[in-house]
Amino acid sequence: MFATLVGIHPRTEELVKASREYERGRITEEEYKTEVENCINRIIDEQKKLGFKQITDGMIKWDDIFRPFSRVLNGVTAGSLTRFFDNNTFYRKLEIKGKIEYRGGFLNYVSRKSEKVIVPGLYTFAELSHNEYYKEKLDLMWDYFEALKAISLELKRSEISFLQLNEPSIVYRYRKREISEDEIRLIASCFKDLKRILNTSIHLYFGDCSRAAHILAEEDVEPIGIDMIETEPESVDYIPAELVLGVVDSRNTFMEDPHQIADMIRKFRGRIAGISPNCDLEFLPYEQARRKMEILREALEVL
Amino acid sequence: MLLTQEIGSLSKPNWRVRYVRGEKLREEDLRELRRWAEFLEIEEDAVRKVESGEAEKKEVVELSALMAIRLLEKAGLDIIFDGEQFRTEMYEYPLKNVHGFRFLGPVRSFDNKYYNKAECIDKPRLISPYHLEEFLFTRRNTKKRVKVPITGPYTLAEWSYNSYYVEKYRKLGYSWKSLRKPAKRDFVLDLAKEVIRPNIAALIDKGADIIQIDEPAVTTKPDEVDIFVEAFNEMTSGLSCKFSIHICYSDYSLLLPHIYELKGRVQLALEFANRGLRGYDILSLFRDYEGEIGLGVIDVHTDEIESPDVVKERILYASKFISPERIYVNPDCGLRTRSWDVAYRKLRNMVKGAEMAREELK
Questions:
Q1: Whether B99 contacts B168, CB under 8 Å
Q2: Contacts of A49 (CB under 8 A, 6+ apart)
Q3: What is the ipTM of this complex?
Q4: Which residues of chain A are within 8 Å of residue B252 when distances are taken between CB atoms?
Q5: Do the Cβ atoms of B214 and B151 come closer than 8 Å?
Q6: Is some CB atom of chain B closer than 8 A to the CB atom of A10?
Q7: Full-model pTM
C-alpha cells in the first residue's frame, strides 16, 4: 500500500512572497522562476523522503486546475473568476467558443521529475466550463478526451507514467442525480482508452462519493480515489474496484490520528491500493500540508 | 439617482510599501510619488519629508491615505474612503486586533493571490476597535460622504480554520458531519457579537453614517446563508446607520430567500462586470428586494479600461431589472490588484458612464 498526493499542493511561503514581488516588478522573471523550481524540488523531495509513490510536482505552475488548458487547447480561453465548489478558492471558468483541439505545450506546465500528472476529468471539465460552442455536452467531453489522449502520449514520451483524472463534479451531480447513463458510459470508456496509454486513475471528492464510486466500479473503472472525510466507510465497502482512500482532510487543520486511520483501513473490506489526502492540499498552509503528509506515512507504518 | 461609490481597497504604492518596510526608496518609487503628488495637488512638505527619509512610518501611511482620498475625489465619486491604506488587507488586519486567533501561513484565494489564514483557538474577543483611526483620518480630510468597509463575521469565520468550536462539539460527542453547522453558527455569532458589533458601535459613536459589511464568503456554503443573516441582524440591531453588504464572485441566487430576513433596507453591493453583460440577468431575482443595489460595473481583475459607454450600457441594462432610484454604481470589488493609473482611469470612466446613464434615464 502506498501514499500519494491527489491535487494542487500549497506553494512555499518563499514562492508566495516571490510571486507578489514579481507581480509588482520588485524581482526579475529569472529570480521568480528560480523560486518556482525551488518550490517544486522541495515538494518532490518531501514526497520521496516520506516514501510517497506517483510523485507529483505539486502543480506549482498551475494557477488553478483548469488554467493550463486555456493555453494548450484551441477553442478555449480563461474567463471569469468563479468559486471552486464550497471553498474560498476561485478558478477562471473556461470559455469554450470553438472546437476543442490540443495545440501542444502542455509539458510547459509539468516538471519532468513528476511521475504523475493530475488533470480535470471529462465530466468536471465540461460541467465547470462555460460552453458556447457545443450543442451536446457529450461532444464537448469527447473532444476534451481526444485532447487528453494527445497529452497522454506526450507524457508517455517524457516517461511520465501516471495520469489522474479529478472528478469532483461527478460526486456533486450524482448527489442530485443529474448525471446521465450516457455520460457515465462515456466517462468509463474514455477512461479505459486513456489507461491503454498511461496508468490512469480517477479521484472523487467534495462530497459523499459512494454512489458515484459504485457506478464507476460497475463500469470497470479503477483505481478510484475516494474522499473518505465526506464518505462513510461502510458505504464504500465491497466496491468491486481498487481504491485509493482519501483519509486526511485537506480543508481542516485538525490533525488525524494515524492509528485511527490504520484501524479504519484494517476494517475495510475492499481492495485498497493506497491512501491520500481527500483532495488538494492547497487548502492548507505549507507546513500543515506537510504534517498531513507525515500522518499518511505514519498510518502506513502503523499498518 | 445612480450615486457612485468605491468598494474598498486601492493598491499600496511601492514607495509606501518600501518605506514602511524600512527599505530604501528607488528612483522609480520617488518619481511615482512625485507624479501622483503633483496630479493630486498634495502639499509639498509631506512629499519632501518622504523623499528625504525624514517622515515617520505613520506619516507615510497617512500620506498614501490622503493621496487615495484625493484620487477618489478627483475621479468624481460621490461616496469614498481612503483606499484602505491603513490596513494590510481585509482579513489579517482585523484578526490581528482580535484575541483567539493564530496565523498559520498563506493559502491561495486565486491565481497568485494568497491570504495568511488563521486558526480560531479560543473564543474571539475584540482587543480594541480597529478602524476608528482610519475613519477619523478620512473624515477630517474630505467633504465627501464616507463609507467605512469592515469585514463581516461570516467571512472572517469562513476564511479561518474553526478549531475552537469544532473541538467543543467533538468533546460533546458530535460526529464531523453533525457538528459542522452548529460549530460554524457559534463561531459566526460570537464574532458578530464580540468583535464586529463593538467596532460598528465605536464608528457610529464617532460619526460614521455609512458602513459596508464585506461578506464575500456568504454563499460559500449554501446551507449556511441563514447564519450570515442571523449574524447581521444580531450585530446591527438598534444601531443607527446606513448599512451596505458587499458580496462578490458568488452565486447570488443562493442569497434568496434569506435576504428577505435582513432587518432594515440594507444595500447589497454586488459584483457583475466580471461576468459580462449576461451576468446582470440574475438581478431579475432581486426585483422584490426593497433595499438598494450597488451595481458592479468595473471589472477589478483586468487592466482594460471600461469606456463610459460600456458603463452606461451596463447600468441601463441593469435598470431593466431594478429601478434606477435603487441603483448605486461601483466597481465589482476593491481595486487593490490594479495600479493607481488603471484604478483612476477606470473610476473616472465609471463616474462619466453613470452621468451618461443618468442623463438617458431622465
A1: no
A2: none
A3: 0.92
A4: none
A5: yes
A6: yes
A7: 0.88
